[in-house]
Write a structure and sequence with these properties.
- The chain is mainly beta and 92 residues long.
- The protein is 13% helix and 35% strand.
- The protein contains 2 helices and 6 strands; from the N terminus they run E-E-E-H-E-E-E-H.
- The longest helix has 8 residues, at 72-79.
């Protein structure tokens, strides 16, 4: 199953570690102090409402932080009962 997180970006649910409201992200995450080996991908120029943290394709050593214009509540609805596939927490 794939989750559409905005723009033309779809992510395999198996790659998703966590989906959080961008307002609760610690500034150190953006500074690279909390998570090493990650890339930030801004999906659109619209305001960022959620952050989808996922393993980068083909690697469990590198992460991608997708900044999405879609709220955590909307992403949760899109997943429906597939939340059990998530390996991390889902904060709405």
């Amino acid at each position: 199953m794939y989750l559409h997180i905005g723009g033309e970006i779809e992510i395999s649910v198996k790659r998703i570690i966590s989906i959080v409201d961008v307002q609760i992200l610690d500034q150190s995450l953006y500074d690279g102090e909390t998570i090493k080996n990650y890339t930030i991908e801004k999906i659109s120029n619209d305001s960022q409402k959620s952050a989808v943290i996922a393993y980068s394709e083909g690697s469990r050593q590198h992460f991608t932080l997708y900044l999405s214009p879609i709220s955590t509540a909307s992403l949760k609805k899109r997943l429906g009962n597939k939340l059990t596939c998530l390996k991390g927490s889902f904060v709405s």
